[in-house]
Each structure stands twice: as structure tokens, then as C-alpha cells.
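Consider today's protein:

***
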Amino acid sequence: MFFANFHDEVCDGYLSKSEFMRVGNVIVNKIEEDPNFIDYIRAKFEKYIIELINIAKEANKVGKNTNNKKLNTLFQNYCKKYYKVYLYASIPFLADFSLEEKTKNIIAKKIVDKNKQQKMFLTFSYPTGASWNLKEELEELEIYKIKSSANLNKKINEHWNEWKWLAYDFEGEEINRKTFSEKIKKLNAKRIREIKEQKKKINTELKNKQKLSKLLKLTDTEERLLRAVGELAYFKEYRKGLSSKTHYLIEPLLIAIARKGNLSLKEVRYLWPEEIEKILLNDQSMTKIASNRISFSIYIQKGKQQDVLIKKRAKDFLAKNVKEEINKETATIKGVVASMGKVSGIVKLVITARDIKKMKKGNILVSTMTNPDLIPAISKAAAIITDTGGMTCHAAIVSRELNIPCIIGTQHATKILKDGDKVEVDANNGTIKILSRVSL
């Protein structure tokens, strides 16, 4: 059984660890048995994501005069294709913990020193390609070289049209043209060097992986598994970006549907595809349903059965199925090292994009998990701490690319730490020491 709790514009997902590991082990076995398995899932994903993007581009063009039949056809087609995309897009996420456990054991059998094990695993888990943010910044460097004012403005416009979706997740806002223009014009030697170093590090880590494979005398199967960690880390970031791009593109379609049903954009996002169809058949009962789900709701999936609970039923279900034991007075929080380093700073809880304005340069970003819409805050962070995530999660990938300390999988950091707390993040040993707490 999987269920998710929607509250305060946040979604908390729950899946039993045993079930998660069971599915993950099946995927890991496929990687072990089939040298072409990752290439296969990538090819399938590429096929369906191209089709999904084409539908999303068409959905992006709808307006006030688009008839209800057309709106419904576009939305239903988008959903059907989205499900196909996620058959393959979910594989890196589902494999995360099983693959991490398996590959760490491979290294541990060959290397006794714990610190060396950690460093080796971080090398193998380094993504095999650039993140979407790095790809965008590398293009900025090319635009920066243009001297002609007319050509520069043209290129900035083209760049904006290509990348304005970048901060979008399941929802969000497009990046305005001025943001890109100012970033490009403010580029200096230090920042240019940092961006180039990020690109260079991908190739450096690929070479380091090859050296470690020889040093550890890996079998073909062991090497394939360790290589898969970095490949899936990159694939996870890659598929997330393209999926987010389609979320951005279909927003005009969702706005048009909301207008037809006298709903807000937010309310439309809480409805099933069949409920959207009812709206477009002038069924007005959906407004109250959507509103109740926004305030507090539980989505449950058990096999092929799905349900949504609201109000008291939702709260009773959560109380029965989620038992959290949190020591809020603890002086030390433990997690998993995603990017090594040690730094101290002031905590800022950044759960959603609306929290970004709290972040100052050098703060410690603490979140349940990070996503592309939090990049403006992440770029200011001295370190990242998250409740959830494995070695191919967004926080792990971005922190290594930016070379900042990161500890993931703390479970309850967001419930223990508060804005203004001072902490020491020891991402060499996976511990967060609370140096001082803000007074309540």
C-alpha cells in the first residue's frame, strides 16, 4: 500500500520500507542480469517523453475560446501518456535504496576503512552528466561572449524561451527574462571558473570511477552495478527536468479547465482525470470536492484500487498508520552523507518555493526534500539537510555539483530544527550538531 498526505501545499508520501526494498531488489536483479537494462529504460522513456512534450506543447496553446471537448481530449491524452512515461521514469527512484545497499556492500567487502568506503561510493554515485541547471549555465557562458548588443538581446530572448520553465516543479512560476539577463551580464571570472569546474568535475569523476574499478578488481557484474548508481543519478535528474517542463507547458490548459468549472488553478490540481471530464460536462459538484482535498486529504493506492480521504477520515487514517517518535530535544541529528564537507551556519527551513525569500548567503537549507523550484535558495546555501532521499535524489545530485556539504535521510530534521538555530553540519560523518537554539 502507498499513501500520500496533502496539507499546507505539501505532499508527504508513505510506502513501507520492506515493499520499497522488494521492488528495488527486482530492479537491481535486472541490472545484474541484463547489461542493456538501463539503456532499455532510457530508450523507452525517451520515446514516451517526446510524445508527452508534444501533447503538452499543444496544451500550452489553448485559450478562452477552446471548446470543452478539445480541452478534455488534451487533458486525458496528457494523463494517459504521463502514466506511460512514469512506468520508466520511476525506476531510478524505486531502485535507489536497494542499489545503494548492494553497491556499498560491494565496496565494504574490498575496503576496510569506512572513510575510504564513503569517498569511493560518492565517486561511483556522481551523476554521469550535467544537471539541467548546469546545462543552462553553460549556455549562459556562450551568450556572455557575445559583444554585439543586438545579438546579445536576441540570444537572451532565445535563451529565456528555452529555459523559462527551469524553476517549475509540479507547479510554480516561470523565470522572467530579466533574471537571465542580469545573471549573464553579472558573470565574472570567479563565477565563470566555478561553472567550468562543475562541468570538468563530471569527466574527472568518470575517470576516477575507471581507476577505482581497476583498484577494487571488480567483476563485470560488480562494475555494472556500481556504474549504474551514477547512471541512474543522472537519469533521475534528466527525467525530472523533462517531466517538470511538461507541467509548466500544460498550465494554460489547467487554467482553461479551472475557468470552465469556476475553480482555482490549485483546485484543478487536486482532481482526478475523470473528475476533470465531469467539470467539462458542466458538473458543478467538483468545487467543494477540490476545496476539501486542499485543506487536508489522504490519497491511498492499494494494488489497482485508489481512494481519497478527507476531513476526519483522513486524519484518523493518518493517526492510525503513521507513528512518529521524534526527540525534539536531541543535540545531534544523524543522516546519510550525500556530499562531503563540514560547515556551521544558521538554519532556514525551506519547504516550498514561498520559503525561498528567507534564505541568505551562507545559511543551512533544511527541507523535507529539494526540487528544481528551490534552486534559488540552494544556490545560497552553505549546506543542505533533508528528511528524505537516497544517493540519486535531487539534493544529493545538486550538492555534489555545487560542492557543498549535504546530509540526506535524517527523517525528522524539519521537525527538530527551527529557523534561526545554529548547527554544525559534519557531512564527513553524517551528523548535524545543534550549537544553539532560538528561544520560543
Residues 132-213 form one domain.
